[in-house]
């Protein structure tokens, strides 16, 4: 998938999500919160499939593992980040639909873990590049 296609797909799913969110918040549509987040989950599924395919390509014969150990760590981090985002979205929807009586602190734990991990990843990328 080319960069232009990924940008267009990201823009399209974000626009669709925001339109559905505005309709729900303006009370024009009485939809379930899980329905509102469907564009986000479709987009995340596409990203997860692409990530898993790239990780599985390491299993091909003739792959040189010497160049890819750092790359694999980054792809594992991306997979963990996607799963944390999914956990946050599911917990948020369950809280908004009143399926559970969970405190907001517990709803936001996956998001906070994702943000802390992203800051650590950013710091490692900045300071490791300076040493080399």
Automatic annotation (TrEMBL):
It comes from the Eukaryota. Keywords: Membrane, Transmembrane, Transmembrane helix. The chain crosses the membrane at residues 7-25, 31-55, 76-94, 106-128. Pfam families: Tmemb_185A. InterPro entries: TM_Fragile-X-F-assoc (IPR019396). PANTHER family: FAM11A, B PROTEIN, TRANSMEMBRANE PROTEIN 60. This is TMM60 protein. It comes from Polyodon spathula. The gene is Tmem60_0.
